[in-house]
UniProtKB/TrEMBL annotation, chain B:
Membership in a protein family: Belongs to the ABC-2 integral membrane protein family.
Main location as per UniProt: membrane
Top-rank lineage group of the source organism: Bacteria
Residues that span the membrane, as ranges: 21-40, 230-251, 257-280, 287-305, 348-366
Organism from which the protein derives: Rhizobium oryzicola
InterPro entries: ABC-2_transporter_component, ABC2_TM, ABC2_TM_bact-type
PANTHER family named in the record: INNER MEMBRANE TRANSPORT PERMEASE YHHJ, MEMBRANE COMPONENT OF ABC TRANSPORTER YHHJ-RELATED
Protein name, as recorded: ABC transporter permease
Pfam families per UniProt: ABC2_membrane_3
Subcellular location: Cell membrane
Keywords, in A-Z order: Cell membrane, Membrane, Transmembrane, Transmembrane helix, Transport
Membrane association type: Multi-pass membrane protein
Location of the ABC transmembrane type-2 domain: 133-369
């Protein structure tokens, strides 16, 4: 084929669906090699899906995707080329491990590509220096700013010198300065390695114009692919935004009526919002420092800044969701008080994320909020209908809010925020992720509210053109307000007509002032990011070993920083062991007994002495009548009532008929059976003690020998068997959660796009838990021996070996469950139910396996707990030696590898 | 009045949202329907299919008769093994009981000499061992007595002990287990449902939205308690009527009204615990782990599995703090013993008090937990 070097990837007839939603529809394009290729298009155009397919993260559904001249549907090809591709998913630091440090993250990625310690150190040093991350190597990734996270993401992607770098919206939510630095970095890298192709998607048109090959997408299809200049010529427009609109509607004119904003006369009233020196600290981290501003009635006040710069925190302090550490926030001249419900009626709020009830319909959402704002029923209904009409939601009034497209959802959120006609609106990034046309529509409503209804609007955004529409704006950067004023004044101050340029220079100014911050965003140094010499390839087994340890190390670090999981892992089993062992006891002692003695003879007293001496019974006040016996049994205060008939002594002496009645509280059937046994035993003891009982002498005494547990105390049975259940329960849950957590957070992408094999991934994740399992075993065994006083009579070595094999098996089972569950909650429940039920029912815990039949017997025989339970009971109470447990150990050793293989078979190495 | 309106409308919203959760509804129906039935009948009686072996060193008619006493469902058919196999096979766990009949046993009985049969019991399965040994004793002694009668060695059959069980004369396991299962499902589902409802709002950001509206934490919490409680209450009534009283034929000796009243109080307490856990946990996964560590002890220590009296004293003091223990006590008293308000009144008050404590605790944590979320 002529593809060779000139063609990076070719896509032919590719379609992709998520349920009913079509993400891509019959897409065919060729991508040239060695270029910087930009993907543009509104939200939901199919950009991410296309990038996912090209990187091999997503599994193709229809059509062919070829990258580097091979079919991406073939696993063999993917494995060969995956070390030539680097993929950075959408979302700030989505594939990074937030709990662990920058250095550990970089090492982790280096290890996945089989690099040696020395090689990694060298590369990390270079990359960190080039990106300005060097001073922050020991900071947890989660505590970096958005821009730094993306730089770290880039470092992680570049650690193995890829030939193709795929970046999915790498700069969304990053401040303007970091954005510039990011692209400069990419340019430098390309200058050094011209053979590297870069493929990126973006929502910023100015970024798209950097690319030398552009792919414009809309609604799952390709609008055009060409160089930027050619597209400009073709459409006859200059601004890329206009070019894109023209591509969307080729014959239409520029349908963007420009937005007219009536100017606002300064009112000179008292400000509605007044913030004075607001400070907010979380631990030793200062999110907001010394922020002050005043906002007047009817003003649109814009708040700008990158993700994590303190915008949201400031807004939360104004709404009373968060108390300021220092300073004051006033609304309508009163300090913001979380308990003051009256002020809240005048405020409407819309948060960053869509925060309505997605399972309720549009109408239900509106009416619910109207009711909660205590609008009268009639008015509430009228207002709802009104808003539905006004916001153009009539066609969707009965649709579930969650099913609406993003633009409509934002409109609904706004409608809900103004349902009670508030005088103040606080909007936190209401338009992020919404395409330009929808954003304009949204702003028309805002302007109308401000100018016609005199509503004060406090809005945060990171779009510069939106900022230009505000009456006044403030720029925030790492917790501080850098500048505040009318947009035109800010432009004038920096003598530019581009707000972003103005802001970048303000940020740079601020950084220069504070020495410490200068390092944080230090511009890339001149030094090369690419190691000069080509590293030697490590042997295959060595690389595999490194990858396994990479996952283990990473898992250990993140587990050690999650207090709830950690407590669950180390204290959970012990807590439940104590509860189970002391709580589940079939020993009946001190049960309350009372006697209705109609006879009152020496014989009757002799009979009763058989009961009185026993530790099982504790005698209460005697009964006077049968009615009283009934009453006291009913109240639950009596468990056993004995009735000795009148004339018992006489009949006994004469050999006549006599009958003693024992009434037992039968409510708890298990206990009743046990008590019956005790009563019969006491009776038999008494009979045996009577010397002249002729009839009795011939009846054989059945001599029961209780083996292994002569006193028949529950603890000897529970002690060895409960740990078997708990190990299974806890380890399966922890293991399943650890995998599904990666699925939920997105770090599983690293397993998809790196040369990690399934077995390496699974074993790597398993190793830390194998250790945890053995620690748990040791803790529980010590508790059983020393606290419960159950001696270990048999081979401790065999028991330990059994515990090791069993731990392996339970972890394998947890992995298997994780392969079929997609989120942590279902993993916890599935693992809990699927480990408790078979263990309790079929492993011999309640009923010996020998008592099971049919399917139950079969399950019991293939269930690992059966064998471990057997060995544990054997080692503790039966005193079995190593050799007599050898058979069980052999069987036990099969389960772990079997589960592991099965999981490896079912675990997907791609997303759907 | 305004507050009541808010609580009402927020609760209605919960119900509307729940109505769309098909999987959850199926789970509720399964839990209160099939699950109750299978838990009540599944395990069978105390002793079931016990594996027994006989070492017959007598080889007489009597010893053979004894050997044929054992048959399902309580026992498996007795297997005959040699005297040398006892230790090994019991070590392996093949048999729970091994009966050893000595040589010349039949002859000794006929001539009225003293003799005895040895029963080896694997006491590692305590429950089955104790109960099973009792059964075997009765069966063997009865068989021997009948045999001895033929050789004029009569026993005074009208002399002896009569055992009677009050409240459940036939000792039906399903009666007991059905009620315990009902109580367990109630605890589990109420806590899961209310806790998850709160966490869902938190994860979706709607809780934050509620907190900036003119609503108090008390209103938000109580609306979840009543709506989720109502769903479980209705399921409970249906399950009690159709599954427990209908299919399983468990008679309710006491007042149904009192039982339902006690149940609604307990629902309040359990829902409050759910809300409490929901405020502590940050994510759904943390909630799931916390819930396991809460619900399992609540079920195990409630007195439903083994009686509270069997717990050590210090543990009884702790389990007194579990609302589930009081609820199981109330249920058993009303259902089996027909107890009235005079007997269960103090327990009812205890449950109500506990519910109130948990609700107040969660409300005080509520705002703080919303604030620290991020």
């Amino acid at each position: 084929m002529e593809t060779g070097d000139s063609c990076l990837a070719r896509i032919e007839g590719v379609s992709h669906h998520y349920g009913k939603v079509t993400a891509l529809h019959d897409v065919t394009i060729d991508l040239p090699t060695g270029r910087m290729i930009g993907l543009i298009g509104p939200d939901g155009a199919g950009k991410s899906t296309l990038l996912g397919l090209l990187s091999g993260v997503r599994k193709g559904q229809a059509g062919t995707v070829e990258v580097f001249g091979g079919d991406m549907r073939r696993a063999g090809h993917r494995n060969r080329i995956c070390s030539r591709i680097a993929y950075m998913p959408q979302g700030l630091g989505k594939n990074l491990y937030q709990e662990i440090s920058v250095r550990d993250n970089l090492h982790f990625f280096g290890k996945l590509f089989g690099q040696s310690q020395i090689e990694r150190e060298e590369r990390i040093e270079r990359l960190a220096r080039a990106t300005g991350l060097l001073p922050f190597l020991d900071r947890p990734a989660g505590k970096l700013s958005g821009g730094m996270k993306q730089k770290l993401g880039l470092c992680c992607a570049l650690i193995h010198d890829p030939d193709l770098l795929i970046l999915d919206e790498p700069t969304t939510g990053v401040d303007p300065l970091s954005r510039r630095q990011f692209w400069t970095l990419i340019d430098d890298l390309r200058a050094e390695r011209p053979q590297m192709s870069v493929l990126f998607s973006t929502a910023y048109m100015d970024e798209a114009s950097r690319s030398d090959w552009l792919v414009a997408m809309d609604r799952g299809g390709i609008l055009a692919t060409s160089t930027v200049d050619e597209l400009r010529q073709r459409t006859g427009r200059q601004a890329l935004e206009d070019v894109f609109s023209a591509l969307q509607a080729p014959d239409g004119k520029s349908d963007q009526e420009s937005l007219e904003i009536p100017s606002r006369a300064a009112s000179g009233d008292e400000p509605i919002i007044r913030a004075h020196n607001l400070v907010c600290r979380f631990g030793d981290f200062t999110a907001v420092r010394n922020v002050s501003f005043d906002i007047e009635a009817g003003e649109i006040f814009g708040f700008l800044g990158s993700n994590g710069c303190g915008k949201t925190t400031t807004m939360r302090m104004l709404t009373g969701l968060l108390s300021p550490t220092e300073g004051t926030a006033e609304l309508y001249g009163k300090a913001v008080d979380a308990n003051d419900l009256e002020t809240r009626r005048h405020v409407g709020f819309m948060s960053q994320a869509f925060s309505l009830y997605s399972e309720l319909s549009v109408r239900q959402n509106l009416i619910l909020h109207a009711r909660l704002y205590r609008i009268e029923e009639e008015k509430a209904k009228a207002r709802t209908e009104n808003l539905i009409a006004q916001f153009g939601l009539s066609d969707h009034a009965d649709a579930e809010a969650g099913s609406l497209p993003l633009g409509l959802r934002q409109r609904l959120s706004l409608a809900v925020a103004i349902v009670h006609e508030p005088e103040l609106l606080i909007l936190d990034e209401p338009t992020s992720g919404v395409d330009p046309q929808a954003r304009d529509g949204f702003w028309r409503i805002l302007i109308d509210l401000s100018r016609q209804k005199k509503v004060t609007i406090f809005i945060s955004t990171h779009f510069m053109n939106e900022a230009m529409r505000c009456d006044r704006i403030s720029l925030m950067h790492s917790g501080e307000v850098l500048i505040s004023g009318r947009p035109q004044d800010i432009l004038d101050a920096k003598q530019t007509d581009d707000l972003e340029t103005a802001f970048v220079s303000f940020i740079e100014e601020a950084l220069e002032k504070s020495g410490t911050h200068a390092i944080e965003t230090a511009s890339p140094s001149e030094e090369s990011a690419i190691p000069a010499k080509v590293a030697q390839q490590p042997s295959k087994t060595r690389a595999a070993f490194r990858r396994i340890l990479a996952y283990s190390h990473c898992e250990t670090l993140s587990l050690s920083r999650d207090p709830i999981r950690l407590a669950f892992a180390f204290l959970g089993t012990l807590a439940l062991l104590l509860i189970f062992s002391y709580g589940i006891s079939s020993d009946v002692t001190n049960m309350s007994m009372a006697v209705l003695d109609y006879d009152q003879s020496p014989e009757s007293r002799d009979y009763l002495s058989a009961f009185q001496g026993s530790r099982y019974f504790s005698e209460k006040a005697p009964l006077r009548s049968q009615a009283e016996a009934e009453e006291r049994l009913k109240s639950g205060k009596l468990t056993l009532a004995l009735e000795i008939p009148a004339g018992f002594g006489k009949d006994l002496r004469k050999g006549g008929d006599w009958q003693i009645s024992a009434w037992i509280d039968g409510a708890n059937t298990m206990r009743a059976s046990t008590i019956e046994g005790y009563v019969a035993q006491a009776h038999a003891t008494w009979l045996a003690s009577r010397p002249q009982s002729a009839a009795q002498s011939t009846a054989p005494m059945l001599v029961a020998r209780y083996r292994y547990n002569p006193t028949s105390e529950s603890i000897y049975a529970m002690g060895p068997s409960i740990p078997a259940l708990l190990l299974m329960l806890f380890l399966a849950i922890l293991m399943a959660v650890s995998i599904t957590r990666e699925k939920e957070i997105g770090t599983i992408t690293n397993f998809y796009v790196t040369p990690t094999r399934r077995s390496e991934y699974l074993i790597g994740k398993m190793l830390p838990y194998l250790f945890i399992g053995m620690v748990n075993f040791a803790i529980m065994a010590a508790t059983v021996v020393f606290l419960f006083g159950v001696p270990l009579k048999g081979s401790g070595l065999a028991l330990t070996l059994a515990a090791f094999l069993y731990t392996f098996a339970t972890l394998g089972y947890g992995l298997l469950i994780a392969a079929f569950t997609s989120n942590q909650v279902s993993a916890v429940f599935a693992a809990a139910v699927l480990s408790i039920v078979p263990t309790i029912q079929f492993s011999g815990m309640l009923q010996p396996v020998s008592a099971l039949e049919g399917a139950a017997r079969f399950i019991g025989n293939i269930w690992p707990t059966t064998y471990y339970m057997h060995m544990s009971v054997g080692a503790f109470t039966k005193g079995l030696s190593f050799s007599s447990m050898a058979g069980d150990l052999l069987v036990m050793s099969i389960f772990g590898p079997l589960f592991l293989l099965t999981t490896a078979f079912f675990l997907k190495k791609q997303e759907a | 009045m305004d507050r009541l309106r808010n609580i009402f409308w927020l609760g209605i919203k919960e119900l509307q949202a729940l109505a769309k959760e098909t999987i959850l509804i199926i789970f509720i129906i399964w839990s209160f329907g099939f699950s109750i039935y299978s838990q009540a009948t599944g395990l069978g009686e105390n002793i079931n299919n016990a594996a027994i072996a006989i070492v017959d060193e007598d080889h007489s008619v009597l010893s053979r008769n004894i050997g044929s006493l054992f048959y399902p469902p309580y026992f498996k058919r007795a297997e005959e093994i040699g005297p040398g196999d006892i230790d090994a096979r019991m070590d392996r766990g093949d048999f729970t009981f091994v009966l050893v009949i000595p040589p010349q046993f039949e002859q000794d009985i006929r001539t009225g000499r003293t003799t005895s049969i040895q029963l080896n019991v694997d006491a590692t399965a305590v429950q089955q061992a104790t109960v099973g040994a009792g059964y075997i004793q009765n069966m063997v002694e009865g068989e021997v007595a009948r045999y001895a009668e033929r050789f004029n060695q009569p026993r005074g059959l009208t002399q002896g002990l009569v055992l009677r069980r009050a409240f459940n004369p036939n000792g039906k396991e399903s009666w007991f287990r059905a009620i315990v299962a009902l109580g367990d499902q109630l605890s589990l589902l109420t806590i899961v449902l209310t806790g998850a409802a709160l966490l869902r709002e938190r994860e979706h950001g709607t809780l934050e939205h509620l907190m900036v509206m003119p609503l108090t934490a008390f209103e938000i919490a109580l609306s979840k308690v009543w709506s989720n409680g109502l769903v479980i209450f209705v399921s409970f009534v249906l399950s009690l009527t159709f599954v427990v009283q209908g299919i399983l034929q468990v008679p309710v000796a006491g007042s149904r009204i009192l039982l339902l009243g006690g149940t609604s109080l307990y629902l309040f307490a359990a829902a409050a615990i759910g809300i409490f856990l929901g405020t502590i946990a940050r994510t759904m996964a943390q909630f799931a782990l916390l819930m396991l560590l809460t619900v399992l002890p609540m079920m195990i220590l409630s007195g439903g599995m083994t009686p509270v009296e069997s717990q050590p004293d210090w543990l009884q003091a702790i389990t007194w703090l579990l609302p589930s223990r009081h609820y199981i006590t109330i249920m058993q008293a009303i259902v089996y013993r027909g107890a009235g308000l005079d007997i269960v009144g103090s327990e009812l008050l205890t449950i109500a008090g506990m519910g109130l404590v948990f609700l107040l605790a969660s409300i005080s944590l509520f705002r703080r937990s919303v604030m620290t979320m991020k």
